[in-house]
Amino acid sequence: MSYDRIDTTQPLAEILWADDEIDLLRPHILFLSAKGYRVTPVRSGNDAITAITAGSPRFDLVFLDENMPGLSGLDTLDKIKALTPNTPIALITKSDDEQIMDIAVGNRIADYLIKPVNPSQILLSIKKVLHSDRLITETDSRRSREHYLSLNGSIDKADSIEDWQKIYRILAESSVSLDSTQSDTATIFNSIIDRANNAFFRFVRHNYGHWISAREYGDNPIMSPDVLDRTVLPLIRQEKRPVFLLLDNLTLSQWIIAKSIFTSRFNISDETLYTAILPSSTQYCRNAILSGLMPLDIASRFPELWVNEKSSSGKNLAEETMLRDWADRRQLKDRTISYIHTTDTASIRLLSRSFRETAASTDDLTVIIVNFTDMLSHSVTDNPILREIAPDDAAFRSIFLSWLSHSPLRKLIENIADARRPIVVTTDHGSIKVTNPVRISAGRDSTSAMRYKIGRNISFPPKQTFEMQRPHQFRIPAGISSSCVIAGRRDFLLYPNDFNRYAGMYAGTYQHGGISMQEMILPLVTLVPK
User: Fold this and answer.
1) CA 10, 16, 17 angle in degrees (round to 5)?
2) Burial bucket for residue 67 (CB in 10 Å: 0-12, 13-18, 19+)
3) Mind listing the pLDDT tens digit for each residue in 5-26?
4) What are the angstrom distances between the C-alpha of 177 and each of 133, 171, 172?
5) What would the pLDDT profile of 377-389 be if each residue is shown by its tens digit?
6) Each residue of 499-525: b (16+ CB within 10 Å) or e?
7) Inter-CA distances, 8 with 89, 238, 491, Å
């Protein structure tokens, strides 16, 4: 056996091409050589096996003619796969026989080309198989840099919550597209997200009080107490029997990567963003969503149910009572409503199995609370191994997607689709990775949350916090002499006692309750079965 190899210095890739008519393909090989690829041409399947067995050069890609005398292309394919299973193989054939296609695809070929092929087709195949990741990354980087330039101007001009929603959506989508890269562009986007959060913090400090005042006239942005009225109530009145799925502590970027799991069985009929109330924590936000009320109004209406922050008992134990009170106030007393709060995969699995039963499928409204993402963020905080596994937002998203892809929640979503029920997906708040400890002092009655403090005699750096001197005006239940101080950006608030120890302990953890796009600008999506 002999073959000729057209040499290039420092080739872009080593390519083996097996074809019994290889002499006719010399113009193609010369073309690839001029493009920087080194091609080893052989005339049979046995020659291809010999070339691979020789071990040098190591081939990056094999082009394989399907119809060769002696050892056929498909037989050669099997032998190459046995010798070097990770080497990509592109099969070239004169036939468009579907059976050959099935066999080739079943053998995990990298590409399938039908003769006659021209040099440009071969070059495209090489780029697709060998260079697609790099080309995609370069394209994403170019687009991201274009976004970077345009977003700088948008951030400076943003003067409405709608402007900020557009900015954050672009940033979240761009961040997700960069998850698989370690490029400079990813670093650039992290910096622009921080810059945007600085401006967003100032924007919220200036406007939040106006939003709360405007609620009396219905002139506020969509906020936590408006979620059910905006999405669920119309569906109930249209006899659609909606399912309301609240994934606790979900960010917009996490929704973006989870969306495909839902859209495999649902079509999106409405996808918008809403604004979490402050503090952007579970006690305030989720109670507000399920009651349709601001926290102060909840405490006034249910004084025996609202739990003081200093209490060690659960802060969201009365959600079902508040939900049913919301339904009564909306003249839905005759409607059947189910409330399910899942805290582990076993309870989700049980719900999934039972969902097709009559009670589950005929409710006028089913509310499901899933706590996994919130539990994951706390686990990353408390477990040093998990903190190593999820050192950044991209890794955190990857863990979340892996869980969602393999959890019984996926089957539950499919069962909801089979029941022909629409589903509203949202969250109560997001979270942000905090990095900057801020020293703060307060009286003994002050709260312990790291993104906000409620109490008396609070001393704080005013430029780094948003102070609500009269929390009642912001519809936050607190003592008469208390104030509420909320952190922004990536800051977290610590008392002087053991400041350095706690600063080291909590820097790099995910927290919520403060002012950032990640915590406050949240997905609100209505989906209908396909």
Assistant:
1) 130
2) middle
3) 555 567 888 999 999 989 899 9
4) 12, 10, 9
5) 767 666 777 777 7
6) eeeeeeebebbbbbbbbbbbbbbbbbb
7) 22, 70, 55
